[in-house]
Amino acid sequence: MTELQPNNVVDAIGLELSHEPVAAAQSVTGDPRTGAAELTVFQGVEVGVWEMTPGVATDTEVDEIFVVLSGSATIEFADATGALHVGPGDVVRLAAGAETVWTVTETLRKVYLTG
Predict the structure, then answer these.
(1) I need a surface site. Which of 51, 66, 70, 96 has the fewest CB within 10 A?
(2) Given this model, what pLDDT does residue 1 score?
(3) In a domain? residue 103
């Protein structure tokens, strides 16, 4: 486990992540895999790195803010919310309970914050 200590640094782009297949019930097409590493909890907020390889998968979101480090994806919502096309440098906020479909075209890596 990589842990971000006070007055320290973690290479979020180069961090090795162990990947697992997306659960069959969530995998739509392709063979998407995800990996994650929780880095720290800061004032009650979990901070970590997550990535997904190319493919399509569904999810039910938690309250989250993330910054895309690399890759690209489209996030579609079950409600009337318009699709988000995300890539490096984008800052995204997702609402708890949002039902989404993630179409990852290039392995997407993000730093996330969630309560």
Answers:
(1) 96
(2) 52
(3) yes
